[in-house]
Amino acid sequence: MSLDHAPIRPAPIRKLDEVVVNRIAAGEIINRPSNALKELIENSLDAGATSISITVKDGGMKILQIQDNGHGIRTEDLPIVCERFTTSKLKVYEDLSHIQTYGFRGEALASISHVSHLSIATKQADSECAYKACYADGKLVPAKPGGSSDPVPCAGNNGTVITAEDLFYNILSRKAALKNTRDEYNRIFEVASRYAIHNSGIAFTCRKAGVPKVDLNTSVGASTITNIRQIFGSKIGSSLVEIKDTDADLDIEFSGHVSSAAHEMHKSVFLLFINHRLVDHTPIRRAIEALYSSVLPKASRPFVYLDLRIKPENVDVNVHPTKRE
Questions:
Q1: Residue % of the chain over a pLDDT of 70
Q2: Highest mean pLDDT among 3-7, 85-89, 133-137, 280-284
């Protein structure tokens, strides 16, 4: 008995809907609340903020809000600020070789708007009032059904307040994977505290919504070591030594605070900023841990905060979707 096998035909290739494309891209840029916060903090720093306040509910899944006192967003830019690849930092591709701002691709706000209910309230110093706008999938949407989607005037201080609610409401598998709200809040606190250490002199606060206690509270004008002591404790802060050097041949500068031989800590802390970006670099981490293995007491792990400055043209900031590596 012979069987007739129908030929296998290739499925047709279709162009994906723009909403699907943007949601896939958003999942690469924003993979959890702490990653969204990193992008928002960098936007605030690019805006020249000297005070950054973070409010979190349910590990950032219900509410993730950041408020700054930066220069704000121009009212005329609000209609496009959440569209992909809209940016004030970049004009031509060659600008990447000497970019010195945190943001440049114009993807962060766009990505957040595709996976949350996003609102922005902003005021410039020369404006009579603030303006508030709501966004979905990169576009302006009405705050209430049937209303206008145009930005509306409102009361507000100079700077910007960005609120992302119901993060990953439309990506249920991602939302289910991030159900440990305590762990997500700890990750948020870690990101905020690391930027507070690196950006000493800028006031950072981080708290849970509805809770009077502030978990992170650094002051304007505070030093790096003061912030380290506040976040990690005076015992750790007192065991660190300050380092600073320049290599003229390689055109590299570095500074930081690292463990002394008397340092005792059971969990390693590695904070690496390259040209002010918080990044991971496994070879540098392993080299430092290997160096300390013969210096520190047995079972003790190092604390390393390293601020590395390299010529912008020698660093490819676009090599990783989240600019993390």
A1: 85
A2: 133-137
Asked if 90 and 103 count as a contact pair (C-beta separation under 8 A), the reply is no
Q: d(Cα 68, Cα 122) in Å, to the nearest integer?
A: 10
pTM, to two decimals: 0.85
DSSP string of 53-116, one letter each residue: EEEEEGGGTSEEEEEE-S----GGGTTTTTSTT--SS-SSGGGGGG--SS--SS-HHHHHHHSS
pLDDT at 134 over 90: yes
Q: How is 11-36 classified by DSSP, letter by letter?
A: PPP-PPPHHHHHHHHHHHH-SSHHHH
Long-range contacts of 103-108 (CB under 8 A, 24+ apart): 103/39, 103/42, 103/43, 103/46, 104/317, 104/318, 105/318, 107/25, 107/29, 108/29, 108/30, 108/36, 108/39, 108/40, 108/42, 108/43
Summarised one tens digit per residue, pLDDT across range 238-259 is 889 999 999 888 888 999 999 9
273 and 255 Cβ atoms separated by less than 8 Å = no
